């Protein structure tokens, strides 16, 4: 079987389709995360001005930060996983090539899937208790359940992304010479530097 045939197998087409469907959702969530961060920065600036100049801080500012902070941590988590932008140890993996590399990546993603799958029901239970008990913040009594519901929802999106990547790595394990599909490709230091130079030189 030649390389073009391996790159166009049924699993590769399925992974490409799944990646195309999920990527816009991840990008939209990442954009929402950026807008929330920008909004909170503006609110923080306003808080400083009102507190120092007018001696009248925003009532409930800490509550708003507390409730929205979870969005910063989770809304972009699946996109970061897709792009391979998460922090990870590559000291050993960086020396692997071919099938050995893809086996190591498969094991790593499988472990991530197990952890995320365990966290989803527990985080949902945490949300349900908050919703059932009517938990709220101290000062302005904001409901905390929307923020807590975000945890199992975003972990579920991440689990879908990890499932796609697991299938992608399994495909490469059995066909190491195929073109990677729907998985982040580890770059060398030289490649990362070259990408940064190209990005900086682009108008």
Task: Give a brief outline of the structure.
The chain is an all-alpha fold and 203 residues long.
Write the topology of this structure.
Blueprint lengths: L2 H5 L2 H43 L8 H14 L2 H7 L14 H36 L11 H30 L14 H13 L2
Structural class: mainly alpha
Biggest sheet, open or closed, and with what strands and sense?
none
Number of strands: 0
Principal-axis shape: elongated
- Number of helices, counting only DSSP H or I runs of 4 residues or more: 7
Low-pLDDT stretches:
none
Order of helices and strands: HHHHHHH
What distance lies between the first and last C-alpha atoms, to the nearest angstrom?
Answer: 43 Å
Helix coverage percent of residues?
Answer: over 70%
Residues in β-strands, percent: under 5%
Rg is 21 Å
Overall mean pLDDT stands at 87
Describe the structure.
By secondary structure, this protein is mainly alpha-helical. It has seven helices and no strands. It has helices at 3-7, 10-52, 61-74, 77-83, 98-133, 145-174, 189-201. Helix 2 runs antiparallel to helix 3 (61-74), helix 2 (10-52) packs across helix 4 and helix 4 runs parallel beside helix 6 (145-174). The protein starts with a helix and ends with a helix. The mean pLDDT is 87.
């Amino acid at each position: 079987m030649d390389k073009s045939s391996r790159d166009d197998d049924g699993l590769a087409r399925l992974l490409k389709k799944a990646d195309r469907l999920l990527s816009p959702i991840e990008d939209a969530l990442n954009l929402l995360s950026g807008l929330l961060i920008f909004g909170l920065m503006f609110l923080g600036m306003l808080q400083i001005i009102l507190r120092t100049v007018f001696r009248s801080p925003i009532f409930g500012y800490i509550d708003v930060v507390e409730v929205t902070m979870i969005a910063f941590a989770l809304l972009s988590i699946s996109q970061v996983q897709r792009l391979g932008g998460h922090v990870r140890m590559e000291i050993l993996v960086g020396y692997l090539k071919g099938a050995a590399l893809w086996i190591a990546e498969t094991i790593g993603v499988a472990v991530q899937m197990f952890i995320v799958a365990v966290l989803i029901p527990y985080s949902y239970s945490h949300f349900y208790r908050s919703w059932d008990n009517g938990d709220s913040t101290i000062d302005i009594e904001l409901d905390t359940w929307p923020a807590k519901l975000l945890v199992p929802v975003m972990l579920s999106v991440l689990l879908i992304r990890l499932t796609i990547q697991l299938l992608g790595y399994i495909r490469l394990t059995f066909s190491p010479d195929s073109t990677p599909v729907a998985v982040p490709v580890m770059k060398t230091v030289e490649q990362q530097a070259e990408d940064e130079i190209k990005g900086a030189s682009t108008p």
